[in-house]
Amino acid sequence: MWSREELDRYARHMILTEVGPEGQARLKAASVLVVGAGGLGSPLLLYLAAAGVGRIGIVEDDVVDLSNLQRQVLYTTADVGRPKAEAAAERLRALNPHVAVEPHPVRLSSENAIELFLRYDLVVDASDNFPTRYLVSDAAVLADRPLVYGAIHRFDGQVAVFHHDGGPCYRCLFPQPPKPGSVPSCAEAGVFGVLPGVVGSLMATEVLKLLLGIGEPLSGRFLLYDGLAAEFRALNVRRNPDCPVCGDHPTIRKLEDYDYAAFCGLG
Questions:
Q1: What average pLDDT does the structure give for the chain?
Q2: Phi and psi torsions of 32, nearest 5°
Q3: Using CA atoms, how far apart are residues 200 and 61, in angstroms rounded to an integer?
Q4: Under 8 Å CB-to-CB from 115, ≥6 apart: which residues?
Q5: What's this model's pTM, rounded to 2 decimal places?
Q6: What angle do CA 203, 204, 206 make, to 5 degrees?
Q7: Strands, E, within the chain: which ranges?
Q8: For the segment 14-36, what is each residue's pLDDT rounded down to a tens digit?
Q9: Which stretch of 159-173, 178-192, 200-214, 221-235 has the lowest confidence by average pLDDT?
């Protein structure tokens, strides 16, 4: 099952009693879809590939910009102008040729989300806008896939696991999006360059824990990180029985019938 090169590559995993050869085999057989290959996606994707997750999908329709390189460590100066999905896949294959990397250079939409999610065991939201976050969460519930979520702003970060083992979804925590313009983008407010590395690594940790079935995942907990104060705190979150997606009587059953841009005040 294992080549000599793989045994050497994953040796530090296999000596962990919580992982071992059996756990490494679970990672090799697993598949993960990452939505977004920017600041959060960069460390996340690198660590998933290095850990030996067998099949990794990347949904990203942007191109590498020079301003990305302050934090998006997946890319180099030579990648400026290239499609991120293409450049990311090339880098991950160079890091670990035993991993199958599947770039999807498309914008995630109500029309393609479910079909994409059903191809993978687990979904990760590394996006950077509210319509996509609601779309990813809804699609994860409808496709019945656990979701690892992360977000960053200036010096602060958030991490959570949604729709896992009866836990809440993103809408349970945020029933309504913020008012348009009330939360500036990274381009408007800036972001501390190392922050995505911290938060993206925490997201990768949650992904690997879920795939291995070890530890306590951040399901029902919302982790907040303050980079300036070097402080973490976790909030408890419960599933909302009135949630329109994962509640007892859901009203959102088809993504195609829902306007995410309008819901977030952008349509």
A1: 95
A2: -135, 135
A3: 20
A4: none
A5: 0.96
A6: 65
A7: 31-35, 55-59, 100-104, 122-125, 147-153, 156-162, 221-226, 231-236
A8: 999 999 999 999 999 999 999 99
A9: 178-192
